[in-house]
Design goal:
The chain is α/β, with parallel strands linked by helices and about 400 residues long. It is built from twelve helices and 19 strands. Strands 1, 4, 5, 6, 7, 10, 11 and 12 form an eight-stranded mixed β-sheet that branches. The structure holds magnesium ion.
């Protein structure tokens, strides 16, 4: 058989009560994007996946869209049900109701709480179906010694050689999985779809899983996954520099804080030179141009605009690239006003705009010993560096 093409059913309807987090685990931030976004992107970017159908809890579409960001436009969202099985059934019936030439030939079913999905796992599943299997799933060997927890046999070693740990995505011929769901009459809720295909007598082909595909289930799993994702990020450094002219009577904004002073800064927007340098540092780390290329001074809509909007934009760009801002350091260069009395407020303001802890935001000030344009009080300069980690 030719290599199958898939429609993926992505399950995000669970409340994730076992993971100990207040937010459902699939919506938590992980390395610059939500857990759900990582799972969705892995499916959407795979060349054998034609479409993704995301199943959310009833009333959960808005939360899912927020967690997906730009990716929300690339997939279809529908409501799941009380249990995993009902959510998959709803998805299958939705797809079965399509026009005949739109009904998928093959299906992947994936748990969104497994964000570490890599392309080779999907390739192995596709190869198994191409080889004639009606169903396939990724598994890992059990390496720990297993013992019984039943009272009568507590501590008895269970033979692990014949056991495997089951992961998702699981792959099926569409007709096989649809029939399994329509005919399901088991008393107990199945924990996955392969069990249902097996119940109907279909062989399920086992392919090699991936340790990175572990499910976020218990407290601590999320943090372990963060470390795993962080190992795939590379550090980037961006540098920003800016100068604005001082004019009598103008408002003075520095690092998002209004400072009473005889002079203020003139120029683009509110002329917050410290934020402008910081925005250029962040854009520099992304290699995505500079503040002027995103917010041209010639565009009247930016006249007098609060510069914190530009900073929020740069922070969003880092998130959209799946990055993390590790640290920023801003230096303001002027003779007057004195920055010291405002420094804590400026740091706090920058940290708030960037949603970063205070210890990852540094703000310093210096003079130029009355030399040069800043020394003569003609303007204020600022420079900034940003340390960002991005997916390699
Ligand atoms: Mg500027």
């Amino acid at each position: 058989m030719a290599t199958p093409r898939f429609t993926a059913i992505l399950l995000a309807a669970g409340s994730g009560s076992r993971s100990g987090a207040a937010v459902p685990k699939q919506y938590r931030a992980l390395a610059g994007a939500s857990v759900l976004a990582h799972s969705a992107r892995a499916l959407l970017d795979h060349p054998l996946v034609d479409a993704v159908l995301l199943m959310v809890a009833p009333g959960g579409e808005a939360a899912a869209r927020a967690a997906l960001g730009d990716l929300a436009d690339r997939l279809r969202i529908a409501e799941g049900g009380e249990t995993r099985r009902v959510s998959v059934r709803n998805a299958l019936e939705l797809l079965a109701g399509e026009a005949p030439d739109h009904i998928p030939s093959h299906i992947l079913v994936h748990d969104s709480a497994r964000p570490g999905l890599s392309a080779p796992v999907i390739d192995r599943l596709a190869a198994a179906l191409a080889d004639g299997a009606g169903a396939a799933m990724p598994v890992l060997p059990v390496v720990d010694t297993l013992v019984s927890a039943e009272e009568a046999a507590a501590g008895d070693v269970v033979d692990r050689a014949a056991l495997r740990r089951v992961q998702t995505p699981q792959a099926f011929a569409f007709d096989v999985l649809l029939a399994a769901h329509r005919q399901w009459a088991g008393a107990d809720e199945p924990t996955d779809d392969a069990q249902m295909a097996r119940t109907l007598g279909h062989a399920v082909r086992l392919v090699e899983g991936d340790p990175a595909l572990e499910k976020i289930t218990l407290p601590g799993d999320h943090e372990r996954m963060e470390h795993l994702f962080a190992a795939n990020l590379v550090s980037r450094t961006g540098l920003g520099f800016d100068v604005h002219r001082l004019e009598p009577g103008a408002e003075l904004w520095l690092a998002g804080v209004h400072i009473p002073h005889s002079h203020g800064l003139a120029g683009h927007s509110d002329a917050d030179v410290a934020i402008h340098a910081l925005v250029d540092a962040l854009l520099g780390a992304l290699a995505e141009g500079d503040i002027g290329s995103h917010f041209p001074p010639s565009d009247p809509q930016w006249r007098g605009a609060p510069s914190e909007r530009f900073l929020a934009f740069a922070v969003e760009r880092v998130a959209a690239r799946g990055g993390i801002i590790d640290h920023v350091d801003v230096t303001i260069i002027c003779e007057a006003p004195r920055i010291g009395p405002h420094r804590d407020a400026m740091r706090a303001r920058l940290a708030a705009i960037m949603a970063l802890p205070l210890d990852r935001v540094s703000l310093k000030a210096t003079t130029t010993e009355r030399l040069g344009l800043t020394g003569r009080g003609e303007g204020i300069a600022a420079q900034a560096v940003a340390s960002v980690r991005l997916p390699s």
